[in-house]
Design goal:
Blueprint lengths: L19 H4 L5 H15 L8 H9 L3 H16 L39
Helix pairs in contact: 2-3, 2-4
Length: 118
């Protein structure tokens, strides 16, 4: 017996939604590469600027090896601890600079964490 307190609702299909049967349900190779670039930018925590969308579209028109190289660069940059200085010219010139992290202590002055409990 169905739960009388459960709320169920069927929504009608959106009138502006594309029909998968009409499109064929397949992505072009450039669309797949574009989605790969967006996924890697998301993974690297780099939100694309609205002006970057045209460039991402243009990059996706390149061959798969070129896009693979860009993806490799993004993955390496995401795992890197190197930070670039803020830009002083261009659209990101007005961004807030990232505060500098304090320098790591010298190896001779590090305290063994096992001794901190004493």
């Amino acid at each position: 017996m169905a739960d009388p307190t459960a709320v169920t609702m069927e929504l009608p299909p959106r009138p502006d939604a594309p029909d998968p049967a009409r499109i064929g349900g397949h992505l072009t190779p450039a669309d797949g590469l574009r989605l790969m670039l967006h996924a890697e930018l998301t993974r690297a925590a780099v939100p694309p600027h609205p002006d970057d969308l045209r460039v991402i579209h243009d990059l996706a028109q390149l061959d798969e090896d070129a896009v693979g190289t860009i993806v490799r660069w993004l993955r390496q940059a995401a795992g890197s601890t190197v930070t670039l200085p803020p830009r002083t010219v261009g659209r990101s010139a007005c961004t807030v600079p990232v505060p500098a992290q304090p320098p790591a202590p010298e190896p001779a002055t590090r305290v063994d964490p096992r001794l901190l409990a004493w």
